[in-house]
Each structure stands twice: as structure tokens, then as C-alpha cells.
Amino acid sequence: xxxxxxxxxxxxxxxxxxxxxxxxxxxxxxxGKASTNxxxxxxxxxxxxxxxxxxxANIQVSDARTIVIQPWERNMVGPIERAIINANLGITPMxxxxxxxxxxxxxxxxxxxDLSKKAKGMGEEAKVAVRNVxxxxxxxxxxxxxxxxxxxxxxxKETEIQDLVNKYVALVEKVVEAKEKEIMxx
Length: 186
Known about the structure:
Topoisomerase I, Chain A, domain 4
């Protein structure tokens, strides 16, 4: 009985992780508004070692369509610019020798539709991850029933895991729908 409860709680933790991953990935999708999330995962060559961009520069949004990157060392302007170009974000960096500016162009209708599809795909991946967790937990419950857990208790636990799956799938759909709305808003 105790191991089945642990299976359920571990399953919920895994589902939460799938949601966190989805949130992280969706935050990186461009919506036509400036967001530091667009470049937060970029690495820059810093004295021969790949280093997170936030470790070598101050990153901030100056207005709705502009990100300003202020390196702590002036010689980092070039490497930061190269990292942004190599990341293929569809944004051309501009520098004045001290800071790098990224002007976020408005998205075309076609690009919005592509990003919307991408968001849906990420949502589907999250749902698959949630369902895979359900599969593992159900296998554990069936094994416990074989090993002597009361069958009605097993059925109750199966219902509990299905309720969790339903909750997280609905949450994924809600988050993806909100992101699609954000992407499609001009």
C-alpha cells in the first residue's frame, strides 16, 4: 500500500516536471514582444569556455520591442553578437561598441501560424510525457495487486492516477491555448 502511494506521488512529481519543461520551452517562443527569455539560454565564448550570456552581461527589456544587452567587459560585445547570430533567432543584433541592441520585428501572419503550431507540438509532447507517467504508475499498481494489494484498492489508485492525468492534460491545454492567443495577438 505504501509503495503504491509513493508511486502516485512520484508520478505527480514527474507530471509537474513535464509542466515546468513545457512552461520553459513556451517562454522561449517569440511572440513579437521583447522578452529576455529569447536569449536566456544562449552561450557565449568567454575566455575559451562556453558561458551563459547572463553570466557576462546585464540583459534587460528597454521597451516593448527592444532588448538591451550590456556586457560587463567591452571586449564581449563581439562574442555576444556572434552568439545571437549563430542562434538563428531571426533577429539581427546592433551594437554601438558598448551595448548590443536587439529590435524585435513584428511577426508576420505566416510566422504567427508557424509558432502557434510549434506551441501545439510542445503541448502534445507534454501530454505524451504525462501519459507515459500514467503508464508507469499503472504498471506499478498492477504489480502491487499481483503481489497481494486488494483489487478494489488497486482500482481506486488507478482512478486517482487517471484523475491526475486528466488534471495535467487540461492544464497543458490551458497553457498552450494561452500561448497561442498571445502569439496570434497583433
